[in-house]
Amino acid sequence: MSEILTKGRLTALLGRHQMETGERWSLRRLADVARVPKDFVYRLDAGDARYVELDALVRLCIVLQCNLTDILVWSNDGNGDQSI
Asked: What are the tens digits of pLDDT across the range 6-36?
C-alpha cells in the first residue's frame, strides 16, 4: 500500500541543521522560527499528521533549507523505501 511518511524526518533535518550551523534547535524552536503551529510540527515528526498545509511545509523547508521530498517520503511498501 502506498503512503506518505514523515516520521522522524524533521528530527533528522534538525540534526543536519545542527551539524551545519552549530545551533541545536528543538521542534518547538523550529515551529517558532518557521511561524507554524508547534502541534503541526510535533504531529508531522511523529508521522501522525492527517492534514498538511502546504504553506507551513514551505516555511519549514525555507528555514531548514531543504526540499519537500526531504520531509515527505513516498513509500510503495510502507517501509519508508522511497520510490517516486
From this structure: 999 999 999 999 999 999 999 999 999 999 9
3-class SS letters over 4-45: EECCCHHHHHHHHHHHHHCCCCCHHHHHHHHCCCHHHHHHHH
Residue whose C-alpha cell reads 501522525 in the numeric block: 48
3-state class of 64 per DSSP?
A: helix
φ, ψ of residue 63 in degrees (nearest 5): -65, -40
In this structure, what DSSP letter does residue 82 have? B
Single pTM value for the model: 0.83
Is 40 within 8 Å of 47 (Cβ atoms)? Answer: no
